[in-house]
Every structure is written in structure tokens, then in C-alpha cells.
Design a protein that fits this description.
There is one protein chain. This protein is 80% helix and 0% strand. It has one helix and no strands. The radius of gyration is 45 Å and the shape is rod-shaped.
Length: 111
């Protein structure tokens, strides 16, 4: 019986560049780590900015809601002011009518 052992050291796939030793492997690992770190920093910054954007949208919604409430209150205030002015006019007319009635009554008494 014969046993043949065949060990393949590589899987046959190589980079476009020929390797110049372990230094190239470490350089590629460092470059990959640098890219991953940079991508993580960018993702973190993006997450912060998205949160700020969401807060701004929430604040803008709150501001618009407050603005609508203020507009409604000002409208009600104007309506009440007009109502008060109308009532004041009616009161002035009644007071004038009462004064005329008093004058007529005085005139009748003096006659």
C-alpha cells in the first residue's frame, strides 16, 4: 500500500499585486483597520447629525404648534374685543335712552 499526501499551501487565489512578504500583509491590515475606524467615525457623526435633525424637526413641529395656538388666541382676543366694543355701544345707547327718559320725566314734572 502506498499513501500519498498532498498538501496545498495556497488556495490558488492571489491578489493583483504580488506579495513582497509579511510586511505587505500587515500594511493591508493597517489600511483596512484605518478605513474601518474612519467609517465608524463617519457613521457616529452621521448618527449624531440625524439625531440633531430629528430634534430640529420635533422643535419645528412644536414651534408650529405654538404658533397655531398663539394665532388662535389672538383671533379669540380680537373676537372678544369686538364683542366688548359692541356691548359698549349698546350700553352707551341704553344710557343715552335712560338720560332722555329722565329729561322727559323732569320736563313733565316741571310743567
Amino acid at each position: 500500500f502506498f499513501f500519498f499526501f498532498f498538501f496545498q499551501a495556497e488556495d490558488g487565489i492571489r491578489d493583483a499585486q504580488e506579495s513582497r512578504g509579511l510586511g505587505d500583509v500587515y500594511k493591508r491590515q493597517e489600511a483596512g483597520e484605518c478605513i474601518r475606524t474612519h467609517m465608524k467615525e463617519l457613521a457616529d457623526k452621521m448618527a449624531v447629525r440625524m439625531a440633531q435633525f430629528a430634534q430640529n424637526i420635533y422643535r419645528n413641529d412644536q414651534i408650529e404648534d405654538i404658533d397655531r395656538k398663539i394665532t388662535a388666541l389672538l383671533k379669540r382676543r380680537e373676537e372678544k374685543k369686538k364683542s366688548i366694543e359692541k356691548l359698549q355701544g349698546e350700553l352707551d345707547e341704553l344710557q343715552e335712552s335712560a338720560e332722555q327718559a329722565v329729561r322727559k320725566a323732569k320736563d313733565k314734572v316741571t310743567l
